[in-house]
């Protein structure tokens, strides 16, 4: 690509670092989470949230279990200031929740921030200044010592104003643009800040290391974190926090690796909203833990409602492929995946497995409030019999014979291919009803009678065919046999193989049953049909008639034979079966 020579790495390797953390597989407990949706997320929106929208978002965060929430930058605007005041005045901060506020390391901004905090019981005051080489050179025009002084002066003011307020606020410091800062210098500044705050076991300080702009692969960021974790003063009294952004698309990976490297806390947002490419996505990080059997201690089980709130108040959209949350993340369109999922679900049901192992589904969609029928098996021209069968069985109780499933799924696939559209379960059922159940063309079952004579059954069947009424007669060793013989003889059909099954439609309010017939002709071609009725024998005859109707050339056959009975014969038959 042109202009590649304009770029070089913008990060700095730590001088020495113990990399043994890289041997760990995963974290074994949830970190302290801090949502920065209402500050970092909000400052990245085209239209920042209104007061009411912030309150709604805040209440959701509390409900999900966040114990630390950065509620804003009170010195930034009237809305930001008012929001914190509203939380205080409406008593919206539970005792176990700490609100966090961000401030630049500038005196008038810090003072305004403290004013906004009046009456807050538990607060974290978060002060930052940029320490990177680029910002020292281009923005602040200051030496390392002068940059350190901004941080230390800010830290002192936080300490003094807290004492003055008689409060017990906790403090957080961020060397902003940490990823573009030499790790030794970031360490020097953080240690100088900690020297001012003198953190204790009961009042720990938070050192937050942001990838304000992500500049390296995740193991490099993590080795920078490890370096600070291993060399910070007062380490046991410091909560080491991460604040990854996503410029290289690795925000979640940075958070996960940073935790392995020694961090205790994560700042991030729901669905990764935030400046430019966003902040680290707490939903993904938390759900990644969940999927490994580690309790994230945040509740993501109402994901659809969470998305609804998020999209409404931020005016952002959750991407359909957003991990764990997107509309399509549990969807399988392709036949072999659907087949494996349907079999995996059955296996799980039969074996009552303790652990989730269903192929192609990383987690159980139910755990995040999603539904199998609507979200998992989705039908289009890539789908197969497993998927169509799954929908028909799970949603409509229709359990077709295996070969019929195949036949029906090819039929459905063709419809989808021609329409160039996904087919929803209701559309699939409609296709089934229209083409495979109780069909009336070219022959329509009007009535029938069955009588047993010695060990034989005599069948009479009244049909409407070719615009005429016709009574057919046949006999056989069973009821269905008598009817099928009558029809086959009349229309010259030879059946070489026959498959039959039936079952109740358990969820059907009219307590109907369904019967299926597969009829193989002399060319070896099998045609399928189904019949639904409250009476089992009627359902079976309907299924047989449907399979006959669906046979190739049946319309021509019916027209050619042009069978008809006289009105007197039909009237007599009707009277004999009690039909008027
Ligand atoms: C990576 C991050 O997300 S950091 C958070 C960023 N978020 C925001 O900025 C949103 C809220 N901010 C605001 O509303 C405004 O910036 C305010 C109200 C806080 C301040 O506005 P202004 O007074 O106009 O200052 P502005 O933010 O433009 O900063 C410019 C000055 O502050 C200095 N400055 C910027 N950040 C800091 C800091 N963290 N500490 C100390 N000084 C700083 C700059 O060097 C510059 O100084 P100069 O005037 O001597 O050149
Ligand atoms: C204020 C700091 C922590 C920040 O948002 C960043 O550096 O990304
Ligand atoms: Mg940020």
Structural summary, described in words:
This protein is of the alpha/beta class and 580 residues long. The protein folds into four domains: 11-314, TIM Barrel; 341-376, no CATH class; 381-426; 443-576, Alpha-isopropylmalate synthase LeuA, regulatory domain (Double Stranded RNA Binding Domain, 2-Layer Sandwich), CATH 3.30.160. Helices cover 42% and strands 18% of the residues. The protein contains 20 helices and 14 strands. It has helices at 37-43, 51-64, 78-89, 107-116, 133-140, 144-165, 183-197, 218-231, 251-260, 282-291, 303-314, 335-351, 372-376, 385-396, 402-419, 425-436, 479-491, 536-549, 554-561, 567-576; strands at 32-35, 68-72, 98-104, 123-130, 170-176, 205-211, 238-244, 265-268, 443-453, 456-465, 468-476, 497-504, 513-520, 526-533. The strands form three sheets. An eight-stranded parallel β-barrel has the order 1-2-3-4-5-6-7-8, surrounded by eight helices. The chain has a three-stranded antiparallel sheet with strand order 9-10-11, with helices on both faces. A three-stranded antiparallel sheet has the order 12-13-14. A hairpin with a 2-residue loop joins strand 9 (443-453) and strand 10 (456-465). The longest helix has 22 residues, at 144-165. The N and C termini lie far apart (84 Å). Bound molecules: acetyl coenzyme *A, 3-methyl-2-oxobutanoic acid and magnesium ion (MG).
């Amino acid at each position: 690509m042109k202009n590649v020579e304009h770029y070089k790495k913008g990060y700095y390797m730590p001088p020495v670092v113990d990399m043994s953390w890289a041997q760990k597989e995963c974290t074994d407990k949830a970190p302290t989470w801090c949502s920065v949706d209402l500050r970092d997320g909000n400052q990245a929106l085209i239209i920042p949230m209104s007061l009411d929208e912030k309150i709604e978002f805040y209440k959701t965060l509390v409900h999900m279990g966040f114990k630390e929430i950065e509620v804003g930058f009170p010195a930034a605007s009237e809305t930001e200031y008012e929001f914190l005041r509203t939380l205080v005045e409406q008593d919206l901060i539970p005792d176990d929740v700490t609100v966090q506020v961000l401030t630049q390391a500038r005196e008038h901004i810090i003072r305004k921030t403290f004013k906004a905090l009046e009456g807050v019981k538990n607060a974290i005051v978060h002060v930052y200044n940029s320490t990177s080489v680029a910002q020292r050179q281009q923005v602040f025009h200051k030496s390392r010592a002068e940059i350190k002084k901004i941080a230390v002066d800010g830290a002192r003011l936080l300490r003094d104003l807290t004492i003055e307020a008689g409060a017990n606020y906790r403090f957080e410091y961020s060397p902003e643009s940490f990823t573009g800062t030499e790790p030794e210098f970031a360490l020097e500044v953080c240690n100088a800040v900690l020297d001012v705050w003198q953190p204790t076991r009961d009042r720990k300080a938070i050192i937050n290391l942001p990838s304000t702009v992500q500049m390296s692969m995740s193991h490099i960021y993590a080795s920078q974190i490890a370096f600070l974790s291993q060399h910070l003063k007062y380490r046991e009294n410091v909560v080491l926090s991460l604040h990854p952004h996503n410029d290289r698309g690795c925000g979640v990976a940075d958070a996960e690796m940073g935790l392995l490297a020694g961090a205790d806390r994560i700042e991030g947002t729901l669905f990764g909203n935030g400046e430019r490419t966003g902040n680290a996505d707490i939903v993904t990080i938390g759900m990644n833990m969940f999927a490994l059997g580690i309790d994230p201690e945040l509740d993501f089980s109402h994901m659809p409602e969470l998305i609804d709130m998020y999209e409404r108040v931020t005016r952002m959209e959750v991407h359909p492929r957003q991990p764990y949350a997107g509309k399509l993340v549990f969807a399988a369109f392709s036949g072999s995946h659907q087949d494996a999922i349907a079999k995996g679900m059955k296996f799980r049901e039969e074996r009552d497995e303790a652990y989730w192992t269903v192929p192609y589904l990383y987690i159980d969609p139910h755990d995040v409030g999603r539904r199998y029928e609507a979200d998992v098996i989705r039908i289009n021209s890539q789908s197969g019999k497993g998927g169509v069968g799954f929908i028909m069985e799970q949603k409509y109780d229709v359990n077709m014979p295996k070969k019929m499933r195949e036949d029906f799924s090819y039929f459905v696939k063709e419809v989808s291919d021609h329409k160039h559209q996904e087919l929803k379960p209701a559309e699939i059922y409609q296709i089934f009803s229209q083409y495979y159940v109780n069909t009336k063309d070219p022959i329509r079952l009007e009535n029938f009678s069955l009588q047993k004579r010695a060990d034989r059954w005599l069948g009479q069947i009244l049909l409407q065919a070719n615009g005429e009424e016709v009574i057919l007669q046949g006999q056989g060793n069973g009821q269905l046999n008598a009817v099928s013989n009558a029809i086959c003889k009349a229309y010259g059909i030879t059946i070489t193989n026959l498959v039959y099954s039936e079952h109740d439609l358990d969820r059907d309010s009219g307590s109907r049953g369904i019967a299926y017939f597969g009829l193989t002709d002399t060319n070896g071609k099998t045609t399928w049909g189904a019949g639904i009725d409250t009476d089992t024998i009627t359902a079976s005859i309907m299924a047989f008639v449907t399979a006959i109707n669906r046979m190739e050339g049946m319309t021509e056959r019916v027209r050619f034979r042009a069978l008809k009975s006289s009105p007197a014969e039909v009237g007599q038959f009707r009277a004999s079966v009690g039909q008027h």
